[in-house]
Amino acid sequence: MAELDVEKLSMDVAAQELIKKAQAEGIETIFDRAKTMKPCPIGVEGACCRICAQGPCRVPPPKKKAGEETGEEKKQRMGLCGATAETIVARNFARMVACGTSAHNDHSRGVALLFKEVAHGRTQGYEIKDVTKLRRVAREWGVAITVGEGEDAKPRSKNEIAQELADKVLMAFGQQSGELQYVARAPKKRQEIWRKYGVAPRGCDIEVVELMHRTHMGVDQDYRNIMKQATRCALSDGWGGSMISTDLQDIMFGCPVPVASEINLGVLKEDHVNIIIHGHEPLLPEMIAMAVQEPEMLEYAKSKGAKGIQLAGMCCSANEILMRHGIPVAGNYLHQELAIITGALDAMVVDVQCIFQSLANVAQCYHTKLITTDPRAKMEAGALHIEYDEHHALDVARKVVREAIDNFPNRRAPVMIPAVSHPIVVGFSYETIQYLLGGSIRGTYYTLNDNVIGGRIRGVAGVVGCNNCRTTQDSSHMTLIKELLKNDVIVLSTGCAAMAAGKYGLLTPEAASQYCGPGLAEICETVGIPPVLHMGACVDNSRILMAATACVKAGGLGTDISDLPAAGAAPEWMSEKAIAIGQYFVASGVYTCFGVTFPSTGSEIFTDYLFKGIEEEYGGKWDFIADPEEMARKMIAHIDSKRKALGIDKARERVLMDMDMRRKLEAAAEEA
After folding, report:
1. Whether residue 56 has a cis bond before it, omega within 30° of 0
2. By three-state DSSP, how is residue 199 classified?
3. Fold designation for 85-253
4. Where in the chain are the domains?
5. Which pTM was predicted?
6. Of the four, 35, 241, 311, 667, which is 20 to 30 A from 252 by CA?
């Protein structure tokens, strides 16, 4: 293997140490493969069409600017069927949206099916924990929470409410007409925009199916029309499947509240049985978190020579159990092979999404048991399959934990756990943010808006997304976030980006004085919150949508999400889910920046539409900025332009509001 410059691969000291260990032991990782395998220059631009057996057709970049090509030159840039670069690139982009949406909506369907079984009492270990949120969500879906009327009204049991809610939610996946229920959550102006352009999603499944049909060979050949359906598909994710799964997971497992924990590979313990949960669905991880605490399991671990059991997470399954139970996190996406290379990992338990097939090869070089748990995500060799069953979930979890305990005595490689971990405070659901700002009686986003209007907070940025081995791990996240913070922009974060912030000390209240401008530092210190708010897993980007909507409804910052001094970014994205997320944020009115590369640059015309033209329709737009410092500058410039449009771009004296002023604000919020 070629020698690697570890400092160019990751800014994480723990990762650097383990990459060196892998090199010394002859273990190939994603970092080795990234050095030897370069991306296809045409495919990376989205200009390779392989949707029929006459291809693949590769469309080279134009030699002239858009509009200057002759008819003959355009013919040379077509597929065999005559598909233009715009059609090919739009189809490829739309198919990424469809796949990303299906990943989230299929996750959501599994959660909804579990919710129904829990409501009927047919599961093991699960219960409805957040009755307050159950009742609030039930009302939105038209489910009665009482029986009878007036003085004779009696509350329905939580299971009765949940049973009816489950049936209504499950119907949303097969819904063929009308609008998804959560469209009504968006600001009224935003709903009108979606209806004007015919993109209000009808159901969770129909939009994916129609988009895949439209991008079949010889169907939709108008890039704008393809993107119309791609937008409707993405919205069925952000305002459909993702939002449904977030709500139902909160109801079953508890709505997150701030909790302290720690992050990075240093959370593993040499004298403990180490188990890592990796993937994106928290259904079995919830039960594993319960099983590892059972006295019988702890005694069994001690009987094998261990002092206890250390459960940790990775990727978004980690985020889910982290923010509800404080289970520590071993790392983000690019740490998964490295965790095994420590020699201390007794079991890696995976479910779905973002899981390297190479884990099986790496695990065979050590003693680690790789355990797959989902029937949709098996490996052909090298992994033990223990299938999740919601009716016996706790028993399945116990079996998984026992496999790890039994494997503890089999350690054979020298153990090297980097002494690197950081404290974190996580669990900022949009409901929690509302409570922190105003308490349980008068909790609204007015306080946040007031500080934005007054200039203490310049604006809000969502920084989300994955790691990508084509960049230095975490470096783009950290450069961007630090630049935003010092310019008084508060950051909302999910997924691997949130984990990156935690690994370098930004998920603690103490970070505010070190990294923030004076205005944001004052707010964070007063409220006692970190300057980067960890809002959960990638499906929980729906929490950011709800926070943005709450800002609009609180008044004073316009009547739509597109009016807010806010921007979004995924500086190290790599997944099709990221494209679906980006598209539903753009369609919700948000300026959205991606780094690394962008899958539309094979067509200047189509890219120009995404970066400029789409803003005329939806008020949001895409941008591609590889340099994170430049990305920060452009996001701040956008935030400043929105402040100017709102008339809050100049410092003003703080005014104490009387009741009449509050009533006017509340009336404006109702209109929104």
Report:
1. yes
2. coil
3. Substrate Binding Domain Of Dnak; Chain:A; Domain 2 (1.20.1270)
4. 85-253, 265-410, 422-671
5. 0.94
6. 311
